[in-house]
Protein 1
Amino acid sequence: EVQLVESGGGLVQAGGSLRLACAASGFSFDRYAIGWFRQAPGKEREGVSCISVYDISTYYADSVNGRFTTSSNNAKNTVYLQMNSLKPEDTAVYYCAARYLGSECPSDGMNFWGKGTLVTVPS
């Protein structure tokens, strides 16, 4: 069974840090691009980052570039999102998703999705 399970969300004060993890099972991790997406209440889902384990490329949304870093541990089939200098506007449910043989992570082109983990940064 294909699964993506996010963890690491929680409540953190502005300026703080969190590290999210996306653990994948049921598929060969090294042929996928793994994206992080987020959806805040009342807003559309937006792409946050993408790492292509396939061709070792990364992408970040302008809103998080320089603050967030995505990385992968192929041995553990896990992708991480290190989030630093968190802001109240980063509050959202964060999802990871996988795209087969992808170098990019289009929201409407991902093959598998996790159920999400909530990040709350109070103002």
Protein 2
Amino acid sequence: QVQLVESGGGLVQPGGSLRLSCAASGSIYSINVMGWYRQAPGKERELVASNTRGGNTNYADSVKGRFAFSRDNVKNTIDLQMNSLKAEDTAVYYCHAAGVYTSRWSMLSGVYWGQGTQVTVSS
């Protein structure tokens, strides 16, 4: 139905930058909510940034001012520009989508996740 594929993770030194991308594919007319979550070892998955189509983007307090979310509603892609990275940003980052419409009137009930991409911040 819907596939989310992330790219752009890797190893970076503290203070460095990375850009994550996610592309949604499948039978998609539009997507209401797209965002990024992350999960560090031994911790719960947490919201990083989430955007409702046509609305504002919500950021976790820990990333405000350092991360920037962008979205292309035509291509069904999202990006996360991560600057001033810290060791505590190390985690697997997951792309998320919900409220996926396959036509103007038909919405899928599921919540979709990508496979995750590892971000490691270390010197």
Protein 3
Amino acid sequence: QVQLVESGGGSVEAGGSLRLSCVVVSLYTYDSACVAWFRQAPDKVRERVAAIKADYSTSYADSVKGRFTISRDNANYTLYLQMNSLKPEDTATYYCAADSRYRGTCATGSIGYWGQGTQVTVSS
């Protein structure tokens, strides 16, 4: 059974940094999967923050470009999100996600696996 286990959330002041990690368990095609981070704030739609494909190409939401960096460690089935210069509007529950298609693109409708979420709170 595939599981995505996030860690690294917490509370920081504006301008601070956090690093999220996600261990992907039992996804044996991990190295050919697109993986991503999504977030959802209260009363808002879940949005994709960043994605990294099997070829290591990355994409970011405009709101986080230049501040967040997504990376992956295929040898350890791990996904990371380095978040710098955090703002109060980054406050949300952050979810690790994996596209269930071979060499997919992490389109929201193609996400087959989700983590349980980790809370990030940024105070002003």
